[in-house]
Structures
1.
Amino acid sequence: MATSVTTQLTSMLAAALLVAAVACQKQADSPTPAATLATSTLAALPLEVPAPADNSTSSAKVDLGRALFWDPVLSGGRDVSCATCHHPATGYADGLDLDIGENGQGLGAARHFRSPNTIPFGQRNSQTVLNTAFNGLTTNAALDPAAAPMFWDSRANSLEAQSLLPLAKLEEMRGYQYAERVAPDSVVARLRRIPAYEALFKTAFTETAPLTATNIGKALACFERTLVATDSPFDQYMRGTTSALTSQQVQGLQAFVQCGCAKCHSGPMLSDYQLHVMGVADNSKNTTPDTGANGTYAFRTPSLRNVALTAPYMSSGTLPNLQAVLDFYDPGRGGARSTNPHVATNQLDPLFPTRVTNKQAIIAFLNSLTAATYDHTVPATVPSGLPVGGTIN
Ligand code: HEC
Ligand code: HEC
């Protein structure tokens, strides 16, 4: 209904202010507003991608970063690349509940361990790399890319720092080939034996001996800053094209705010980047419980950007689709309850929704957060000559 929502754009970009009429939902199907509530909680993404002062973007760094991202020479067994778990075909995530790195074979849901195998599953669901260039961005403050929160428990800051950590993780890219503490140096030594990498680093960086672990991190981060998708129907709507959303999606947007989802999933990334205890069930493949940030069972609010592309959901990957996520938030028993035996219901975040209405409309709204126009490029070759992306075929 045309009068149910008024959008008011205070600027074309970051400060998009949604003045949403919030339906009272006494009758689930009637979007007629009982009250009009101005919210500044959601926003379009900016069109400019911020970069830290000490790692400005250049096309040479992006080219190098793309080669590194796809090259399995960065992994102990020369079989896993970043793209193995962050592939454009699966929204730059992997489509699995828990990730399979070293000694795996195949892509997406078909990926499995080769036999024999002694490598465990990664403990968590793979996050997407799309739009991580905006991690930390809120509506009311400028983004500091050097402090950008990374991982489900925010244990790393910045794309530069994050990108060296998978190299050292046994289950992801290290395997048993070398010890954790020498992992980045071992990768550097390998790359120095490949003349094409020596040349790419010399073109991308000014130092006399530029092939270093720090510069691997910088080049990967520069490439990741090109993996953005900023033109979803939701973004178009927030920038003023009200016809970009269907009326069901507008209803879903209203219900999303009204049900309290936007108390945590706020701002242009639909995340407050705070840690919350949600009592999500652990994955039974985990031999020890995933205790979250500092053993508190809290996890960072994930961005919902492109969420429709990255099932299954939650840190444990235990919810197969968005319907299951909505059912998780609305157990239909008159309020929140923990589904994790290590978390009592009274330990759940006080902002945990107590009642969820209009679930189908909310799902339609979540689908409007998909921007399919991101970079789908798969390089034809990588400098090591190894299979592009690792053992993914
Ligand atoms: C074996 C699968 C796997 C590989 C290989 C892998 N990742 Fe990831 N990635 C994950 C998982 C799982 C997470 C979440 C881990 C966590 O929270 O502890 C993640 C998280 C991330 C994040 C954080 C996203 C966010 O919003 O916080 C970034 C960025 C990222 N990976 C980039 C990379 C880069 C760059 C490489 C290659 C150097 C790489 N990944 C290799 C599985 C993988
Ligand atoms: C109290 C803060 C909070 C509120 C309120 C909240 N969420 Fe979440 N949301 C989170 C956190 C934290 C996670 C990750 C939990 C985990 O994996 O352990 C999450 C996960 C999700 C995911 C999975 C994303 C992914 O990539 O796996 C979706 C979808 C989602 N929430 C949608 C919603 C909807 C819809 C609502 C309203 C009905 C809502 N959330 C309310 C904090 C919140």
2.
Amino acid sequence: MHWFLIALTFVPHAASLSAPNNYEYRLSQENAKESLMHDIFGSLMHDSNIIAERNGAHRNEQLLEQQEASPISFPFKMNQLHYPDIDDLTDFKQRGPLFSGIVTFAHLPQDECFFAREPIDIAIVGAPFDLGVSYNSGARFGPNGARQGSRRLGGGNSPIRGNYRASKLRRLDPYNAGLKLVDCGDVPMTPFDSRIALNQLYRGHHAIHKHSSFNSTQFNNTRIVTLGGDHTITLMNLRSAYETFGDPGGLAVIHFDAHIDTWDPKVLGGGISDYASLNHGTFLHFAAEAGYVAKNHSVHVGIRAPFISGIDEKHDAVDCGFKTLTSKDVDVYTAKGIAEIIKSIVGHRKAYLTFDLDTFDVGYINSGTLEAGGLSSREILTILDGLEGINLVGCDIVEVSTAPNTVNSASTELLAAQVVDSMLGLMTVFDQPE
Ligand SMILES: *[C@@H]1O[C@H](CO)[C@@H](O)[C@H](O)[C@H]1NC(C)=O
Ligand SMILES: *[C@@H]1O[C@H](CO)[C@@H](O)[C@H](O)[C@H]1NC(C)=O
Ligand SMILES: *[C@@H]1O[C@H](CO)[C@@H](O)[C@H](O)[C@H]1NC(C)=O
Ligand SMILES: [Mn+2]
């Protein structure tokens, strides 16, 4: 810094004297060693010794003595750069800049989760699937979209993690909290038959859940955060999580979404075939029917899309067992208040959090079925952190539609990643030793 200031003082002076002449003078020099380029870049473009010798110099030291102290090159001469030997690549062993390299979620190590059996505490896995959407496709690109959006994540304490200063979450860096987090890559899901694709996802989850935990205080098995994929995938995530961790009464499902997703399969699937009846708007009906959903202890958050038929609300609340918090309830109860209500519904039960990106307002994101009147990104981060202390056995982010050339791709990716980051905070804070 000291030399830099000196350079600033000298440069205008030199320029006012005779900048063009100075430039010509330097070009006419016989020795490349004495050029301004060399003073700044050193041997980046020419090896100074070879050039100096070619130009008749006997010794390098002689040349250094001959050099006048140009006002422009002065600071660079005082800070001559020494490049490593051409075969020395030790600096390549360090991680490159955040925007570089093969991308895993938050730069986590990539693990061979489906075949190897190493202990893992929390596994990220992608479900690149969008055969179940009723409107806009593109969520098959969501897993890698979320990874791209996560490139600035991966460690360090955040001044906004946790909603109050004394919270454990505030002092927690989930990536360095003693738990082993890995990115398993994606489950290979066929894009040609949703039945086979969903079964592949189920087997993938089962294989990951079978890993033992590494350093968990609470769990014997690996917990999973799934990057979707349209919302249909949650049925398989829930099934495997329920089979691994579930209590007989089911998992408390915390469902962030603009839509209830318990719609009558005969209506939303059009009643065409059994195949058509399972989709991203009916999977929660099937999850409730299968017993994965803890009735009266599960909740929708952010609801605002119109109901399709007159029986939807009753079917949702009575048959499927969901409470509902609408997007406008955030205005009434505040974001922190919403989190308290969710916690009172869930209690100490094992919970599964599924987050449809369309919970965010339409202005932020691209997703399967965009709806107006959604939540801001700050409201969502506050609600999520307000869930500190709940027992999350699994999470997913879905409807992350980052198809090529779609609008809002960058913020869609970033917000998906940020929601997963909050999930990792909740999952690790619950799992810290006292
Ligand atoms: C396990 O977690 C504890 C508590 O967070 C931590 O101190 C310890 O270093 C972790 N062990 C390993 C092997 O990472
Ligand atoms: C983990 O396994 C141990 C030993 O089998 C068992 O005592 C404990 O209850 C298990 N913990 C959970 C959370 O399942
Ligand atoms: C859910 O709550 C309703 C109304 O409070 C009650 O009638 C019903 O029995 C409860 N269902 C379960 C499974 O607890
Ligand atoms: Mn949904």
